[in-house]
Write a structure and sequence with these properties.
- By secondary structure, the protein is α/β, with parallel strands linked by helices.
- It has 29 helices and 15 strands.
- A hairpin with a 3-residue loop joins strand 1 and strand 2.
- Helix 2 packs across helix 3 and helix 4 runs antiparallel to helix 5.
- The chain starts with a helix and ends with a helix.
- The N terminus is likely disordered.
Amino acid sequence: MAKKKTRTKTNTGKKSTKFSFKLNRQQKVVLGSFFMLFGLALSVAFISFLFNWEVDQSALGEFTNREVETKNWLSKFGASVSDFFMYQGFGIAAFIFSILVSYSGFHLFLGIKSTKLRESWFWGILVMLWLAIFFGFFAAKNPLLGGRIGFEMNDFLQDYLGFFGTILLLFFLFIAYLSLRLKLTPELIGGFVRSKKESLNKEFQTNKAEVSATDEETDWKEKVVPKQEKTYEDTTTEIKLETSTPKEQAPTPSPSLKTEKNEDPGEVAMEVETAREEEIEEDKISNKIVKDFGEFDPTLELSNYKFPTLELLQDYGGGITVDQEELEEHKNRIVETLKNYKIEIAQIKATVGPTVTLYEIVPEAGIRISKIKNLEDDIALSLSALGIRIIAPIPGKGTIGIEVPNKNSTIVSMRSVIASPKFQNAEMELPMALGKTISNETFVVDLAKMPHMLMAGATGQGKSVGLNAILTSLLYSKHPAEVKFVLVDPKKVELTLFNKIERHYLAKLPDSGDAIITDNTKVINTLNSLCIEMDDRYELLKDAMVRNIKEYNIKFKARKLNPENGHKFLPYIVLVVDEFADLIMTAGKEVETPIARLAQLARAIGIHLIIATQRPSVNVITGIIKANFPARIAFRVTSKIDSRTILDGQGADQLIGRGDMLFTQGNELRRLQCAFVDTPEVDKITEFIGSQKAYAQAHQLPAYEADESGTGVDIDVSERDKLFREAAEVIVTAQQGSASLLQRKLKLGYNRAGRIIDQLEAAGIVGPFEGSKARQVLITDLAALEQFLNEE
């Protein structure tokens, strides 16, 4: 007996150790919130799929390819999930599934212990199947109605029951649902109809009695209720605090109301009502103006402007030609080289681009990536290549990339890039077609989202062509009223072709000569003028109560901003600086400070910077500038140090030149072949635009007076620079009064040379500042100078 009892105890112990799954309150909150939001996300994806499913069909097979874009509001995830539940599944009945998921999450989140949750899922799935079969009748016209499941089940039922039999079955299931789930019976429906009929009869009798009142009764009612009292009762609800107190207990009126003691409360109410009407009057007026005249059109002044045609650009040939022998040879040499170092390859794939071919390899298990990375020079030697680049691993893929230059590269013409659907259909504020990727896809980015770009590369590697490609993209996509360029060209030869479109697209300082800025002093003045423009625009945004230029222009076009208050349509301004290193060397902080200000603050008000330099050294591209230029383009540079400076990593020193470049926007590096646009093509485009009707003048930037542009105020002799006499001799000998001459001859900085020029002007040795011209020298020779200085 004792043994039996022991067994019983042991068995009970075993039963108590069974696994049980229970969630605590915190876990239920987390899981519930996840289900609620996931159900909501499904609904959003399904709604978007109704409108975009045809467009997104082509992208569904390339879920892992980050280059493929979808129109669904939840991107690739939304398109894939919606395709699974709606197109491949239950059609529009899939919305029931998203509702059930959110409903379950709601129960978990609030901790509702409901036994009906399982029942809701059971009936919900049945209704989903019923709807899918029902809409399956119309799936041939629109596959989204019933989905694949609805179509196949409907087709199956019609094969066995026929069309009429299927309808009868669905009708029977509908009656069963109403009776079993909703508890609806013919008696309940009849009672509901009778009660509605009775309530309608009562309402009809009441209305009939009110309508049958005689004219005498109506007149009597009007006499009993005076008009003044009626007005007073209506207005007391608007200003209850001021008028509801009796005269005996009336409080002292508030000073802010500014009303007399014996003032009629009805009149005060009318004043308040009028003030409220005035507040909404502006919206009514703007809506009326938009209705009468339409939205404001900034392009109206040049309404007949024609964009450049594709015929102005040259076609440099067809697509990429694939050399199978070259591919096979390179593949075999890569495999052989890696085998020599005991590195086995499981798979290899080639993607041919315009300039380079990407070989993607999957090494055998257990091979270290660093081992392959260290063999860069050995692989380059075996391939006899100009320079290869190893990407280990390729971001977003489980492969290692080896980029090998093609023996015969293909020119990427600007025409093919501009004509591509990706550029033509780009919904961007400032679209820029930079070129083509290794997979031969057109690469288009939005300058407005960058928001600034830094370009670097050695001489002759494609910087100037890249700048021309960017400017050409904007000329082909934006009207002259929408974008303006500020072009800085210290070399004086690269951007001069754009002088022809000065009154269409360029912006400059008032009373300045050429719109293309070549003088360093004018560069400093222009940058400071842009800072003033930036501050002015922020004031306009503040008054309009908007956050960025896009919202401001939308509000202005809707005629909700009054031009009499200083409001106007704001075009985007793109500042392009070629040879930035030369500016830093000559002007230093005077250039760096406004550039840094614009880079930090100008994004929201539509001023964007593109800066190009030959050698990206740290004293040229400082930390402040790099921090505010997340978008970088690197053409071929001469050293790894330069590559690290521009890209924060290696790679630019291994490019092959002639437009081969690396682009980053703060994340991964992308290798591109820059679109080629030759000087004659740019000349044709600017000639085509320049021959059309233009604005009266170039876009005027705010006026800015430099502190060191010649003050005309006498400077104390004791405060003169130590090199004053020597500088005066240099100026008189050369008969040319310029700060740059003193910089070269005396090896001075720009600031010190400018101060000496001011001192020479105050002393009467050189004349006043004359813009881009050199100052006039007022003393003819050294003897006269010596006599002049001794007489002081």
